[in-house]
Amino acid sequence: MQYTMRTNRYRFTRWVHRDDHSKIDAVELHDHKLDSVENVNIASKPENAELVDRSTRQLLAGWQATPLTF
Question: The organism sits in which domain of life (predicted)?
């Protein structure tokens, strides 16, 4: 099962086990500024660790935590 969120620049997807959502199967991070067709998953690059952590927290917080500014 997947949970995805999109910002102006990134698409972040967290794949979790169907029966236990605490088990993470995979994580995807795509930079649409540099890779608009999502050919390269940059989630595992060390320089993106903070962005993955921040995106994970935002995704888990849900849409209620999203600012109303666009």
Answer: Bacteria
Per the document, the length of the chain is 70
Predicted confidence (pLDDT) per residue in 13-49, tens digit: 999 998 998 899 999 999 999 999 999 999 999 999 9
Per-residue burial over 22-46, b = 16 or more CB atoms within 10 Å of its CB, e = otherwise? eeeeebbbbbeeeeeeeeebbbeee
| pLDDT reading at 69 higher than 60 | no
Separation of CA 34 from chain center: 16
Q: Which CATH number among 3.30.1120.10, 3.30.230.10, 3.30.870.10, 3.30.390.30 corresponds to the domain 2-65? A: 3.30.1120.10
Cα diameter, the chain = 35
